[in-house]
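Lab notebook, bench 4. We co-purified these components, and the gel suggests they stay together. Before we commit to crystallization screens, I want a quick structural picture of the whole thing.
Request: model the full complex, all chains together.
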Amino acid sequence: MQVPKQRSGPKQILGDLEGEVLECVWQRGPVSVREVHSHLAARREIAYTTVMTVMSRLAEKGLLQRRPEGRAFIYSASMPRDEYWTEVVKNFLDGVLQGANRPLLSHFVESLAADDAAQLDLLADIIEEKRRKRACS
Amino acid sequence: MQVPKQRSGPKQILGDLEGEVLECVWQRGPVSVREVHSHLAARREIAYTTVMTVMSRLAEKGLLQRRPEGRAFIYSASMPRDEYWTEVVKNFLDGVLQGANRPLLSHFVESLAADDAAQLDLLADIIEEKRRKRACS
DNA sequence: GACTATCTACTACATGACGTAGTACTATGC
DNA sequence: GCATAGTACTACGTCATGTAGTAGATAGTC
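Here is the predicted assembly.
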């Protein structure tokens, strides 16, 4: 039995191409449509106007900002990658962590430790802090 | 600037009605379409066949299982709520926690503590465990 | 000026997911 | 036979996303 797959990375709550575009803007921005298109087209065929439409829609959604420069628009991300992800995770966790159980927390810690053991230490520090703060109130 | 809203609860990766149906099956299952329909219809107008379709689709997706009983089907959830949520969160976090940073972790801990301070202790325990395990290897 | 390249605005289509729900058919009970 | 109950089948609308062509305007080059 397969649980429906959550998408990962910036694609989380965006379409695949949207996520790819956003990632590109984070890495290279401020950028024009042409630049993003060049970058994407290096790997596959995609029409210029497809890229342009997606960027325009992302701007409508507020994830990208744009300013005119000559005849073109220059796009930048509306928030840094870290900030975006913090918000995404925040929203997700706020809805889910009520009644978190041990297997869930266990998995969370494992995911963290798998990447970088320093994260575990960081998390432990944060928790100590919070518990200290709690003990004082 | 508003980050697109993540949906919360069982609705996370399902539609609204799908999530509601799944929740109903968890609470009352094994159930027939009629029972789920009665429960949902208590609060608003909804056609029997709408409920039936949604349940049928959830079964196709593998989230519900069904067995014939007389002319009807009896539906059950394919996995318990906890298990489902663990999987959902697992998939989400696996894609996101690479390069987790301090603000993100801070928020995570805060979300946890806001609900139930016991969770913080539980998490601290789990971390200690993992760090001990790490120190032994 | 003509031509070419570049860019956006405008437009449109397809697909899939989801919610919605009626109709037809069948089986069962009275 | 009639009424009820249940599924199969069917269909439609909306929305999000990916896809991309065309038209028109602008700028640069010859």
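Residues 117-135 of chain B form the longest helix (19 residues). Worth comparing against the SEC data before the next meeting. Residues 91-135 of chain B form one domain.
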